[in-house]
């Protein structure tokens, strides 16, 4: 049993060392060799001057923003509807909303490609947004529905008993309780969209390359230390985003536990 | 009125999630024209074509790789999840976040990180050359072990979480009882901990296995052209060979395979539950 602790540290090292190596080498002068030949910010500089990278970045941001707005609104509405009302085949429909989570991404991307080509919908930012909304919906629904179930019905009922109208109840009680999970899902969907490669790969048009697709191209074309710089930035942004989302979620969770 | 709130999501998923798979299924019965166009019809040719020794070989490779990956991930994740579940509450949360962060980092980047370490001018070879242990760089990349390493690395978080959840729920009193009755640590582990965490093991394994058989990016980045898996074949049929009907048929096979595995998992869980209820 004594071996568990060092073993666990070793596994965590195994998880992090490759990413740390990548980050360190983004500051290495040498173009091809892994040997350290001096500190440089050149790769970051050339990255910022690379028009294709900036294009990909702006595509990614646009798609992620649109996806976030659409998926969050639809997912939140649906979660509230499922919480408030009992449908016919309630749990079956709920299972259907979660289904995109378990279908292999490769197949989701390809089937969407087939759909778009059958209806002659040109591939581009529009198809990217449609695809991203589709795979994000379950996450939004999951986060917000969970929160509503956790809140229970008592809070709303108490407000109504005290004479609040349904509107007042929603805006003064329900929405404030939901706010942290809505924020969390906004950050989550934004990150998922920025990060997605597999599905985007099949539904992005030639003029709507996203960052991950660009990175894939760089890896395929050969090694340029610019990838290290770009990957480093993406790792840092992902960690910051996830940390903020987690922090907001916990803060909200604590608040409700205190009030209830 | 309020019920309408859930309608947009249903419509969206029916149009952009269900319909695409219906189209995929229909196209799998079509034929490929000379120029890659789709010729409507109904034939099962694409499905039979899969039983060619070439594709069956790739299927076998895929299953072997998925199996080895799942076992390796399980062996690495179990001690880690076990360790985390035994820590004080506050530390558990920190460790979980540390283990789950990579889950959110693009797996393209995570596989590429290994390329930097393993390629011929990569970190490992550079160190070994500098130390004079080798004279020529070893070829550590673009082979099956590299693909396996990449899969294990990218799929590890999927196993740690379900294992942690079932280890967390474990009734400690049963372990104490075992110790009181004179069980040695490994006996308690073998007869109590392991059987009681079977649901977590099964769930983690099914997620990792199903993810492995659909994988195409890791073999693409770390395996080179020789290490083909089913996912790569499907991707090639769509993008290079432009044989969408055949690509669709293989996709349907892949989906059937995944569905069978998931159904088996549920059956096993139900069976397990009934057995438990009886006891």
UniProtKB/TrEMBL annotation, chain A:
Tagged with keyword Membrane: yes
Superkingdom of this protein's organism: Bacteria
Bilayer-spanning residue ranges: 7-27, 61-83, 95-116, 128-149, 170-191, 197-217, 229-248
Cross-referenced InterPro entries: Bact_Polyamine_Transport (IPR051789), MetI-like (IPR000515), MetI-like_sf (IPR035906)
Annotated Gene Ontology cellular component terms: plasma membrane
Main localization category: membrane
Domain ABC transmembrane type-1 stretches: 57-245
Subcellular location: Cell membrane
Protein name in UniProt: Spermidine/putrescine ABC transporter permease
Protein species of origin: Desulfuribacillus stibiiarsenatis
Species classification: Bacteria, Bacillati, Bacillota, Desulfuribacillia, Desulfuribacillales
